[in-house]
Design goal:
The structure is a homodimer. Helix content of chain A is about 45%, strand content about 5%. Chain A is mostly helical. Chain A has a domain of about 130 residues: Orthogonal Bundle (Arc Repressor Mutant, subunit A). At the A-B interface, helix 1, helix 2, helix 3, helix 5 and helix 6 of A face helix 1, helix 2, helix 3, helix 5 and helix 6 of B. The structure holds a DNA duplex (23 and 23 nucleotides).
Chain lengths: ~190, ~190
DNA sequence: TATTGTTATACTCTATAACTATA
DNA sequence: TATAGTTATAGAGTATAACAATA
């Protein structure tokens, strides 16, 4: 989440000329704006004569990794601001939320679910515990494991935090219709799940 | 891109029950699989009785930031492997690609376009230059600025690197139809552009 | 005065190896 | 032997402040 000094973004807004054809399900309209003078997208463009004012990043914009990362960072930037009052960063939030919705979950399960590494979770858990947001209870079946539970204080915090997160996300995706938002979530999950 | 020791991922594949309605454009089908017994998505679910085996992350899956980040990391993980032979990490790749497509682009422009901070670009540029992949030439109009150009060696490298990146991306998005892929790119850009 | 590029530096995030205690 | 949790630590990534040269 790099906060820039104050750089004007010369990124051009593409006319998002996107169609699709398929089988069984209806879809969301992708171009609410009246299709503005659509510049031909260069599939293998020849370089800019000389990059004097505008910068062409049309190739990078064809890459899912690039677009997903840029979108994620854009959202996370606002997330950090809005969730700072709760003392929660994205990973803290994910961990607290998962514990809240899965009482007794173990560190091992958290790592697998959220794709974290065990050593990096240790300090995080200790911090949440020392803040009184979670409790560690012995695991019923496995003597090695420890069950994690949100305290009433932690639960109350997360009700607010999740509400804030959801609101912020709706703001950040304001250019999307609810249908498009739903579509986007489902398509992203097809990549990483 | 956290590489796990070898954890079985208890993440459940959602039935991606996604519909959409809208106005002017056709869309891609979101559910190629024969709609499998669809579990009710909990909008504000009550916690798992006890997280013994499976972990419920349905709330996080409603967050764009979470999904975008997970998808991005999933792609970047493979990106790192496949682009390692070229000595390029994601940011190096973005910078080289942008220079290649925009001869004479300045550091300042790169920062604005790729959302990087100037101090972090310095070492990166120096590294690319010392590898003989780019050249720095005086800017025609501005004595302070330096124009960046890809050398023939750098150009040749990037032809291969971009081909590799595009291939890897198609692999990672194999569960998506071309139409869905196009849709996804356009929707992501609506968030960060 | 404002901007480009740079240095130095601090802070955070992520990754690896190795240990312990339980199974 | 394998796994859950932990420790210590290294490395990469990202951030801020301040400076010189040019506009």
């Amino acid at each position: 989440m790099p906060r820039q000094p104050a750089p004007p973004r010369p990124l051009k807004t593409p006319g998002s000329e996107v169609t699709a054809s398929g089988a069984s399900v209806q879809q969301a309209p992708l171009d609410p704006q009246p299709a503005k003078a659509r510049r031909a997208r260069a599939p293998r463009a020849k370089p800019n004569a000389l990059a004097l004012d505008t910068v062409d990043s049309s190739y990078l914009q064809t890459l899912m990794g690039y677009n997903a990362r840029r979108a994620a960072l854009s959202i996370i930037e606002l997330f950090l601001e809005r969730l700072a009052p709760y003392g929660l960063k994205p990973v803290d939030f994910s961990v607290m939320s998962t514990i809240g919705h899965n009482p007794g979950v173990t560190s091992r399960q958290l790592c697998a679910t959220l794709n974290l590494l065990p050593p990096n979770l240790v300090g995080l858990i200790q911090s949440l515990e020392s803040r009184g947001l979670i409790e560690r209870k012995p695991h019923p079946h496995d003597g090695r494991a420890v069950g994690l539970h949100a305290t009433p204080k932690g639960q109350a915090l997360m009700v607010q935090a999740e509400r804030t997160a959801t609101e912020l996300e709706i703001e950040k995706t304001a250019k999307l219709t609810p249908a498009q938002r739903k579509t986007l979530l489902a398509l992203l999950q097809k990549i990483y799940l």
